[in-house]
Write a structure and sequence with these properties.
Layout lengths: L4 H37 L8 H5 L29 H6 L6 H8 L6 H17 L1 H5 L3 H9 L6 H14 L6 H5 L2 H10 L3 H12 L8 H15 L4 H14 L6 H5 L17 H19 L1 H4 L10 H6 L5 H8 L5 H18 L16
């Protein structure tokens, strides 16, 4: 007699599974062979290549290994512990960051400088102890790259300074470059450069000596805010929100000229991250106007100013805010309510800001 049908079907399913597994394993093996063959077929890296430098192809003292010498593999460096980050975790300096800094030279071509700076930035974030062991001279070296004629080098230098700014002892030294960074923002219209510059400035306490330059750059910051590049817009509005809390800069911000459609930034269709930051900015401007220090002076604003767009008699900001109270994003809702409360306080000239409802009652 023949075998039961169920038994035959079971065997068939097993065969299919085996065949499937074999096929899958074969595919993985073929993929492995293809990748391995591709790696072997790649030409050897030039020792002057910045990619080679980034892969630890530099010898001691920052000199490149001979071109015919193979780059050290993981086994020769002690297996997984050969990785720079692993060596630091075990209390041993890799020296990688120092080699990269030593290899940086203003005479190099733009691509090489950009790649080295990019690698330095990564090392600063990953190798905390080695980054902390760097010196003020290293910051000066990186800062000098802001004068390079190539925008990509400037951007990478800004990113590197931003990485170093996370280390407390370098903040004051990096502050010395703030005037140059502000100059880049106002003289070069490049969104990527704007983002890198503003991220750096937003990570620094800006010194008082930078305020005159900030006044000159204010129109450029407002213009970036009204651009169509959200990453640059968010960074610009964060800096402006911080500057709005400076008594000596508030009027300069409020008197900046804006486009006729400036209030479109308060539309519900704007990305939530931008909309929230714009509302924070409006709240801080409103708070600043309410302070006795600011009210003590009778200020005059031009008709196309930010002040008139937000707080003038013809402004439609209130209508925009009411629409945002039902925004899907709860943070936007709360922030819109905060601005409404602040505006209500400013309408009653007899009220001191301290007698207005608490700004935190909506949390």
């Amino acid at each position: 007699m023949g075998k039961p049908v169920s038994h035959s079907l079971g065997q068939l399913d097993i065969r299919k599974s085996v065949v499937g597994l074999a096929t899958g394993a074969g595919a993985i093996y073929l993929l492995y062979k293809a990748i391995r063959a591709g790696i072997k077929s790649q030409p050897p890296l030039s020792t002057t290549s910045p990619i080679c430098i980034a892969r630890e192809c530099l010898g001691s003292g920052g000199r490149a290994l001979p071109q015919e010498a193979p780059a050290p593999d993981a086994s020769s460096l002690g297996g997984p512990n050969g990785l720079a980050i692993e060596r630091e975790r075990h209390g041993r300096y890799s020296g990688e960051l120092r080699r990269l800094l030593n290899s940086l030279d203003y005479k190099q071509d733009e691509y090489t400088k950009s790649m080295i700076l990019h690698s330095i930035t990564r090392c600063v974030y990953l190798l905390e102890a080695e980054a902390s062991a760097c010196t003020a001279e290293d910051i000066v070296l990186v800062g000098s790259m802001l004068d390079d004629k190539d925008s990509s080098v400037k951007i990478q230098a800004l990113n590197t300074l931003k990485a170093f700014s996370g280390i407390r002892k370098f903040k004051l030294k990096i502050q010395e470059h703030s005037i140059k960074v502000l100059e880049l923002i106002s003289t070069i219209w490049d969104s990527e450069l704007h983002i890198a510059s503003l991220r750096l400035l937003n990570n620094l306490p800006l010194p008082d000596f930078a305020h005159p330059q900030l006044r000159r750059v204010m129109p450029a910051l407002i213009e970036i805010l009204q651009s169509d590049y959200i990453l640059a817009q968010v960074q610009a509005i964060r800096l402006l929100s911080s500057l709005a809390q400076k008594n000596d800069l508030l009027y300069d911000i409020l008197n900046c000229k804006v486009h006729s459609n400036f209030l479109n930034l308060f539309q519900a269709t704007q990305p939530g991250s931008l909309l929230f930051e714009v509302l924070v900015f409006a709240e801080r401007l409103s708070e600043g106007r309410n302070t006795p220090h600011y009210r003590a002076v009778k200020w005059h604003y031009n008709e196309e100013s930010l002040h008139e767009a937000l707080f003038g008699d013809e402004s439609h900001l209130a209508d925009r805010l009411l629409a945002l109270v039902i925004h899907p994003d709860e943070e936007v809702q709360i922030q819109a309510c905060k601005v409404i409360v602040s505006l209500q306080c400013s309408k009653d000239v007899g009220l001191r800001p301290s007698s207005c409802p608490s700004q935190s009652f909506l949390h």
